[in-house]
């Protein structure tokens, strides 16, 4: 299977992904679920443009990874020796790696929801027409944080470049799935693997759903850390934070976090400028 994916060229890969989601959409909600409104089609185009940008700097990351790994080793940072994994059965090793990785992503995602980092992540949350391509809508500054987590967790675990690429590909396929227009919740396994319903709640514009469901693979991390929220179907709930971000405008969305941080700094400086001169105290 992985070998087959490896042999696909880029456009065949997108065609296969699209065909899979059309099939899943029809299976789950009938033809109505794959009829895209004009606004959803524009959202899809913007998300696809973000996907191309992400592919560009992900490529740069993999190109730079051997150099960074050498730097990591030279600093004397801890690393699990390769030989350790040779003694562990492959399914168990894969599970351990995913557990470490998703633990890192859970906390990185939670940090991205704090006020200082929120502008970087708000771009992902800006899609009011959530669809499988919404996963691609991520600002470069947010991607730097996620890629750093992936790099440090995988280097600490002693993985090689091919294994990290395989992990990134599996993550990409799963993330497309959880952003898809599907109302699936994985039944008795809903705490075990992130479902489209679980992640849709993360995007829902409702105060009860804010800052919930941070895990990207294992929802039990949210259960353990008190952020699990999945009361019922989220299929007809509004998604996005539309009024607060520039909608489906690629250039404006790219500039938006920098403008927000500029506003934050200006707001911090303003009270200092406006502080009135101390008036002499009356005696
Ligand atoms: Zn988020
Ligand atoms: Zn998302």
Helix and strand arrangement:
Elements: H1 2-7, H2 10-29, H3 38-74, H4 82-86, H5 90-112, H6 118-125, H7 140-156, H8 161-179, H9 196-203, H10 220-225, H11 250-274
Helix pairs in contact: 3-7, 5-7, 6-11
The protein binds zinc ion (ZN) (2 copies).
Structure description:
By secondary structure, the protein is mainly α. The chain has one domain (38-268). It contains 11 helices and no strands. The protein has helices spanning 2-7, 10-29, 38-74, 82-86, 90-112, 118-125, 140-156, 161-179, 196-203, 220-225, 250-274. It is globular and about 50 Å long. It binds zinc ion (ZN) (2 copies). Residues 124, 135, 179, 199, 202-203 line the site of one zinc ion (ZN).
The helix-and-strand class reads mainly alpha
Mean pLDDT: 83
**Topology pattern, helix = H, strand = E:** HHHHHHHHHHH
Largest sheet: none
Task: Output the keywords.
mainly alpha, 283 residues, globular, 61% helix, binds zinc ion
Compact summary:
With 283 residues, the chain is an all-alpha fold. It has one domain (38-268). The chain contains 11 helices and no strands.
